Amino acid sequence: MEKMSSDCPYPGCFFCVMKEGNPSKRRASILKFFRELPSQDDDGQVLPISGLWNTAMAHPNDPEFIELGIFECMAALIWKGLKNRRWLYHDQNIYIPYYAAHIIGSYTMSVEEFAESAVNAGVIPPLLELLRGRLTWVEQRVAVRALGHLATYATTFPAVSSHDEILELSIQLAMSSLEIVYSHFYQYVDRRLSYHCDLLTRGMGGVEMESRKAEEWASQLQCWSLQLINCFAFKPEFLPTICKPEFLVKLPGMWGGLVNENSPAGIGLLRTICHHKIGRGAIAGCPGIIEALCNIARSSDDWQYMAIDCLLWLLQDPNTCHKVIDKVVPELVDLAEITTLGDHKKLGDTIVNVLQDCLESQGSGRSSISSHTKEQIEELLNSKQRLKWEKTMPKEDLHIKQAAALVVKLEGNSLFSSGNISGAASKYSEALSLCPMRSKKERVVLYSNRSQCHLLLQQPLAAISDATRALCLHNPVNRHAKSLWRRAQAYDMFGLSKESLLDAILFINECSQSNDPDLSLRQNKVPDYAERLVKKQMRAAWLFREAAIKHGGVHSQGDGGDLYGPETDDSEWETASESDEENDRRGDDDDGDDWKHDDERRDKYDKPSI
Q1: Which of 328, 189, 177 is nearest to 257 (CA)?
Q2: CA–CA separation, 436 and 450 (whole Å)
Q3: Which segments in the chain show pLDDT lower than 70?
């Protein structure tokens, strides 16, 4: 390729080619560049590749380079790195396979025709070699990303699935990715490959930045593996391979972490698996998965609706309903007041209809329901019937019921303030039986108050149930600050770190936007008790926690230190003692908790640290 600029010392410089003003000459020069680059051994080859990487990221839908042979060029460069280690370790060529696979993934991300061109160019075999781990986890990450994009399209999925090994490798990678990144990079700072560090931080950060980016990339490696598996899960013939108990049971724990919250991760794959009866049968046979789905269904996770979908499908399948109904019904009853969750409208009505069908199917002999489960469903149906009756009642009668509920609630508050927590809980239950069903704001307060009583009485399951009901009734859903905090503490009692962490973070967010002087953040400062719980749960829910324990429990060596700071004493809880008499006097509509320490009550009722 002839020299394009008198100022450039490199003949055939790609950047000079890109400056060519004549379109036909420019295309011819780019075509020649792509054809000749894999056979050249000149220094500085990484520079044009990194330039192409930037272009692919910025303009992934531009067809120019696709038409001129970029996929053939990238595939050849990956093969060259795999077969010619002398070339790979020369100059900065070690970066090239990573950039090449990333370029393939970027251009195939959203245009099916580009994906077809990539398959025809032969990119799958070299990507498969990277997926096998022929180089390092960094290249595995971009390989599984590119293969996931190719598997998304109906026209290119057969080419991906024709390689039987891809599914098995993806499953193994999803299960082992966090341990791989921890043991091969995160654990020992002095053993980190320099080019890994450069790719992670672009030369802009030190050890701590490398560690944080490594956690993000490890999460992406796992989530992109799950995305690739998800493409296979839509095909029933691949479900026996996917639905192995040792893999399924790990899926609820694959959540992307705070660094990758936009990925549905394991719950997204479980939802796809539940679409087919083979998948539902496998999931229903794993009690641990059902319990985890129930936890996600009542959590404040962005993917809550996916877990609810899974539970509803399991109940609607006659072959799985009897296996899960006794475990699933208590959770769904708590969620039946949800009206809208994201784009999902009338979700609560759907839950009620499915539970009613389950009850009716028992009468026809199609399923078996325990007496306790039957009572819970009937109680829910009665509450819905009660709501219908109230619509026909005179307004005066409703006002009388609401006033009576308020009187009983105040009695409960008085008992709570005097230390009679059990008596207060009973009064709140009585107030709920009186309070009109359509008085949602008042019912939110009553459920939340009773949740606090259960919390102090060391009844975390009941506290979670009531807090969940309050959050479902609240508008917007899952945004009642005090219920979030109470449920966060109850989850902590159960050791549900992720759920507790999400609720605690949402509680802090709600406090930052609240007009309540007891809740609003003073001088933009996070309450100490909330900060302590968040730090504790960030350690417990840390993506690398299991790997760190397995490999010696070392979070980080060198200057990075402990990613989440030193251990703190979490034995002192903030319980937020209940007394809304002051708020009633000033006309506040909320439950008006006193969110300050009450040492005597805390010593008496709060749990010891776990």
Answers
A1: 177
A2: 17
A3: 1-12, 363-367, 516-524, 553-610
Long-range CB contacts (within 8 A, 24+) of 557-560: 557/187, 557/188, 557/189, 557/190, 558/189, 558/190, 558/207, 559/189, 559/206, 559/207, 559/208, 560/189, 560/206, 560/207, 560/208, 560/210, 560/211
pLDDT value, residue 340: 87
Q: What is the pLDDT of residue 261?
A: 76
Go through the chain and tell me how many residues it has. 610
Q: Which residues contact 195 (CB under 8 A, 6 or more apart)?
A: 92, 94, 95
CA separation for the pair 168, 128 (Å, rounded): 12
What is the reported pLDDT for 365?
A: 57
Q: What's the confidence (pLDDT) of residue 602?
A: 36
3-state secondary structure 387-436: HHHHHHCCHHHHHHHHHHHHHHHHHHHHHHHCCCHHHHHHHHHHHHHHCC
Distance from the first to the final alpha carbon of the chain: 69
Torsion angle, alpha carbons of 269, 275, 278, 281, to 10 = 80
Calculate the alpha carbon distances from 294 to 492, 506, 557 in Å: 16, 20, 38
> What local confidence, expressed as pLDDT, does residue 607 receive?
31
Give the burial class of 319: count Cβ atoms within 10 A of its Cβ; 0-12 exposed, 13-18 middle, 19 or more buried: exposed
Phi and psi at 461, nearest 5°, equal: -65, -45
CB burial class (10 A; 0-12, 13-18, 19+) of residue 608? exposed
Whose tokens are 């195939």? That residue is 108
Q: How far are the Cα atoms of 127, 205, 310, 311, 324 from residue 316, in angstroms, in the given order?
A: 41, 52, 10, 9, 11
**Which residue is it, tokens 């899926």?**
251
- φ, ψ dihedrals at 320, nearest 5°: -120, -15
Burial 102-135 (b: 16+ CB within 10 A, else e): bbbbbbbbebeebbbbbbebebbebbbbbbeebb
Distance CA 438, CA 405 (A): 13
Q: Could you tell me which of 594, 591, 580, 333 has the C-alpha nearest to residue 442?
A: 591
Measure the CA–CA gap between 128 and 319, rounded to whole angstroms.
38
Q: Report the pLDDT value the prediction gives residue 583, as an integer from 0 to 100.
A: 40
Angle 601-602-606 from CA coordinates, rounded to 5°: 120
Distance between CA 471 and CA 577 in Å, rounded? 19
What is each CA distance from 469 to 156, 491, 501, in whole angstroms? 46, 15, 19
For residue 467, what are its two tokens? 């807090």
Find out whether 166 and 231 touch, Cβ atoms under 8 Å. Answer: no
The rounded distance, in Å, linking the Cα atoms of 178 and 175 is: 8
Residues 202 and 213: their CA atoms lie apart, in Å, by 11
600 burial type by CB count under 10 A (0-12 exposed, 13-18 middle, 19+ buried): exposed
Q: If you compute the radius of gyration of the chain from its CA atoms, what whole number of angstroms results?
A: 29
Cα–Cα dist 51/57, whole Å: 10
Ordered alpha helix ranges (H), 153-264 = 157-161, 165-181, 194-201, 207-233, 239-242, 245-248
Task: Tell me if 46 sits within 8 A of 80, measured CB to CB.
Answer: no
Encode pLDDT of 529-543 as tens digits: 999 999 999 999 999
